[in-house]
Design a protein that fits this description.
The protein is mainly α. The protein folds into three domains: about 1-115 and about 130-165; about 200-350, Leucine-rich Repeat Variant; about 355-415, no CATH class. It has 21 helices and two strands. It has helices spanning about 1-20, 25-45, 50-65, 70-75, 90-105, 125-155, 160-165, 170-175, 185-200, 210-220, 225-240, 245, 250-265, 270-290, 295-305, 315-325, 335-345, 355-365, 375-390, 390-400, 405-415; strands at about 75, 90. Helix 5 packs parallel to helix 8, helix 13 runs antiparallel to helix 14 (about 270-290) and helix 17 (about 335-345) packs parallel to helix 19. It is elongated. One of its GO terms (cellular component) is cytoplasm.
Length: about 425
C-alpha cells in the first residue's frame, strides 16, 4: 500500500530529524511544518482510510517529538509553497483540531460511500449491503485508532490552544461511540476519553456532563472491554483536577452502576478491578473536595456530606472496595483502592469501624505481596499508627486472628517511622 508506506516513512523521517536537530533551525522547522501540512491534507484528499489513520498517527508522533512549545507556536502553510513564497498560515493546534473535527463529522474522503445502485429501480443486493456495512465498520475502527493517538497528544501538548478550537469535538466523539458502531470502536472512544481527561485536567471539566451519560451506558455494554474502559474513564473524570464539583452530580447514577459491576459473580475480573478503582477515585475526590480543611478530618467529611445534595454511604463504599481486594488483573488499580480504604478508615466514622477486621486481613495479605508498592505500605503504616492511638490493645487483639507472618509484618509497619 504505497500511500500508507509513504505516510509512515515520512513520519519517522521527520521525527528523527527533529530529535537530532536540538533547537530546530529554520530549515528543519520548515520541513516539520511541510510534513505536518501533508498529514493534515490526508483526510481531505486520500481515499485510503489506513493512510489517513497513519497520517494522524504520524502527526501525533511528530508533535510529541518537537514538544508542546513548538506545537503551540508553529504556523502551518495552507497552500503549496513550491516556489518558496510564503502563503497564508494557521496555528498548528487549530489546523489539527479542524482535521479531527472533519473526521469526527465523517466528512473525510475515505468516509464517503456510494450507496446507490446503478439502476435506481433495482433494490441493492443483501450481500452488497453487508459488504458496505462491514467496510464502514472497518473504516470507522481504523480512523478511531488514528484519533486515539492524535487527539490525546494534542490535549497533552497544547491543551489550552487546542481545546479552544475543539468545543464541539466531545459531542461528536460521543456519536462515534453510539451502539450502531462496533464494540471495538466504542472501546476506543472510551480509551480516548481517558487519555484526554488525564491530559486536560481541570480543562476537561466542561466536557464531563457530555461524557458521563455515555459512560453510564457503556457500563452496560455486552463487551467487557467496553465496560471496563467506561468504568475507568468515569473514575478518571473524578481524578481530574478541579472536576469534582461537576462530576459529583452523577454519583447517584454511578455508584449503583459500579456496585453492579463489582457485585456480579460472573463479571470479568478486569471489569471488577476497574469498577473498584473508579469507586476509589470517587471517594478520594470527595474527601479532597472538603470545603473546611481547617477542621479535623472526620469533621471535614461530615461537613462535606452535609453540603452535598447526595450522600455516599461510607460503609457501603468500604465494603465494596474490600471485596475487590486483592486485585485480580489490573495492578494499576491497587494503589487508588488501598488509598481510598485507608482514607475511609481514617475517618473513624462509626459505620466503618466494624469493617476494621476485614481491612486488617486485606492489609495482612498486602504485606506478603512482593510486588506491593512502597507507597501503599506507607498508607497502611500511617493508618495503623492512627488507629493504634489509644486503642493499641484492641488493634492487637484483632491482628491476633491473622497468620503469624502477617501479624509480624503489620506490627513492624505500625512501629516504623
Amino acid at each position: 500500500m504505497p500511500a500508507l508506506q509513504s505516510v509512515v516513512l515520512s513520519a519517522f523521517a521527520c521525527s528523527g530529524a527533529a530529535q537530532n536537530a536540538g533547537a530546530l533551525p529554520p530549515a528543519v522547522q520548515s520541513m516539520v511544518a511541510e510534513t505536518l501540512r501533508l498529514f493534515i491534507r490526508a483526510p481531505h484528499e486520500d481515499e485510503d482510510a489506513d493512510a489517513v489513520s497513519a497520517a494522524m498517527v504520524g502527526a501525533a508522533e511528530v508533535c510529541k517529538t518537537i514538544g508542546g512549545a513548538m506545537v503551540h507556536g508553529l504556523q502551518i502553510p495552507t497552500t503549496d509553497n513550491k516556489d518558496g513564497a510564503g502563503g497564508p498560515s494557521v496555528p498548528l493546534p487549530q489546523m489539527l483540531s479542524e482535521i479531527i473535527l472533519h473526521v469526527l463529522r465523517e466528512d473525510a474522503i475515505c468516509q464517503c460511500f456510494a450507496e446507490d445502485s446503478d439502476d435506481e429501480d433495482e433494490e441493492p443486493e443483501e450481500d452488497a449491503e453487508n459488504d458496505l456495512a462491514a467496510e464502514k465498520a472497518r473504516v470507522g475502527e481504523v480512523l478511531m485508532e488514528g484519533l486515539a493517538q492524535l487527539l490525546p497528544a494534542m490535549c497533552e501538548l497544547s491543551a489550552e490552544g487546542f481545546i479552544a478550537t475543539f468545543t464541539e469535538g466531545f459531542p461528536l466523539l460521543m456519536r462515534q461511540g453510539e451502539r450502531r458502531h462496533s464494540d471495538h470502536q466504542r472501546s476506543l472512544v472510551s480509551a480516548i476519553l481517558v487519555d484526554c481527561v488525564k491530559a486536560l485536567g481541570n480543562l476537561a471539566t466542561p466536557c464531563i456532563p457530555v461524557v458521563m451519560p455515555y459512560l453510564l451506558k457503556e457500563m452496560q455494554a455486552a463487551d467487557p472491554v467496553n465496560r471496563r474502559n467506561a468504568a475507568f474513564c468515569a473514575g478518571s473524570c473524578f481524578a481530574a483536577a478541579g472536576a469534582y464539583a461537576t462530576a459529583a452530580q452523577f454519583i447517584p447514577q454511578l455508584q449503583p452502576a459500579l456496585n453492579h459491576l463489582m457485585a456480579n459473580p460472573e463479571e470479568d475480573p478486569a471489569v471488577v478491578d476497574n469498577a473498584a478503582g473508579a469507586l476509589a477515585r470517587i471517594v478520594t475526590a470527595m474527601l479532597a473536595a472538603s470545603p473546611t480543611p481547617q477542621l479535623p478530618f472526620a469533621d471535614c467529611l461530615n461537613a462535606l456530606l452535609i453540603a452535598l445534595p447526595i450522600k455516599l454511604p461510607l460503609a457501603d463504599c468500604l465494603n465494596a472496595l474490600l471485596l475487590a481486594l486483592p486485585i485480580k488483573e489490573d495492578d494499576d488499580e491497587t494503589e487508588p483502592i488501598y488509598l481510598a480504604v485507608c482514607q475511609l478508615l481514617s475517618t473513624k466514622d462509626s459505620s466503618v469501624v466494624p469493617l476494621v477486621p476485614r481491612a486488617l486481613q486485606a492489609f495482612g495479605g498486602a504485606t506478603q505481596d512482593p510486588n506491593m508498592k512502597p507507597v501503599i505500605m506507607r498508607h497502611i503504616a500511617d493508618l495503623l499508627r492512627m488507629l493504634a492511638q489509644g486503642h493499641e490493645a484492641e488493634l492487637q487483639a484483632v491482628m491476633a486472628s491473622l497468620p503469624a507472618e502477617q501479624q509480624a509484618a503489620l506490627t513492624a509497619l505500625m512501629n516504623s517511622h
